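FW: tagging you since you asked about this chain on Friday. Here's the raw sequence from the shared folder, copied in full. Didn't touch anything.
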Amino acid sequence: MNGHYSDYLIIGGGLAGSSAVEGIRVLDGDGSISIIGAENAYPYDRPPLSKKLWSGKKHVEDIFLHEEAFYRKNGVELIIGSRTAAINAADKFVTDAAGERHYFAKLLLATGAVPRTLDIPGGNLDGIFYYRTLDDYTRLRQRTSESRSAAVVGGGFIGSEIAAALRINNIDVTMIYPSRYMCDRVFPEDLGRAIERSYESRGIHILKDQGPAAIERSGSGYIIHTSAGQSVASDLVIAGIGVKPAVELAESAGLDTGDGIIVNEYLQTTQPDIYAAGDNARFPYQALERQMRLEHWDSALNQGRHAGGNMAGAHEPFTYMPYFFSDLFEFGYEAVGEISSQMAIVADWQKPYDTGVLYYIRNGIVRGAMMCNLWNRVEEARGLIRRKAGANERLHPPARADV
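HL: got it, structure written out here
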């Protein structure tokens, strides 16, 4: 065999891939493990890239998931800055961009997701940030030290978080998004508009109901022309318009895909020795009885661990209910289950648009819950969803603001 061999080969140097090592080592203390990651960095946490790194609550050295000693202790060969080009599922090897083969007994695809890009004139101009990686943060942080203004395209998770992050660092921010209100995929309209007012009160200019139609250079900056005929000049352009699952490698192996890599309850793909976990995996969400793909930290953490355990022989179904969170200035929330503004939403506010719980209802039962500025309620919310609580049921004991 010409090439490198691993009992466990992990493609993807993020949270899911790193967590898989922990799952493997619970059952197999000796099998060889290799992680191949495309970024030139050890595995790190992504949430601080749009949150605590900007507020100063964390520094770059704080976001790495493990120190080098962890990989050494667990016998992990960590290959960073290497892109995987293709998978040969029949002969059980992957080929990297340099043409080298990496053979495996079990393979985990933890390739995550890639940013969507603007398919408009000027959407590929040099210097536009499609924000996703530590390198993006490092470059943007450097640019903010010499810039005064930024245009943020997108009003969802990343757009709203990065707009807040830039504003607290004294950058003049204009947000541009085509939806009627901020975070319209998860917030009810009244909450979304209240958050918009909060942003505007902090000096963020919002252009909604319109998208970017074209971008051009103007000196060292940019001008965005919107679909409503407005023009926005800025030193920086950051696009946070969502991501798409990285499925190219899975497709090269002939695996089933469709809004992600299709996996069963054991996180196995259609090739039993190939698993997938994290942002790229479309999995059976047991408590909701439906197929889903989640782009959240907690999902990647727990799916990675679970996939690692199953690769090592556990053969246990994934039944965990991941939660997600966000911080928009002083408005923070944690949510679990099915969260969609297209559902019936019952709001139980202690302080309107600040503190309380949103219950997401489908067919008369609670399918999801969002706890706004209320903490340590996620497990209670999971219980409501698991037992298919009725629309009138509430968290018990009654939700209250933590002192």
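FW: The first helix runs from residue 15 to 27.
HL: agreed, and The chain has three domains: 4-114+243-311, 117-239, 330-386.
FW: great, closing this out.
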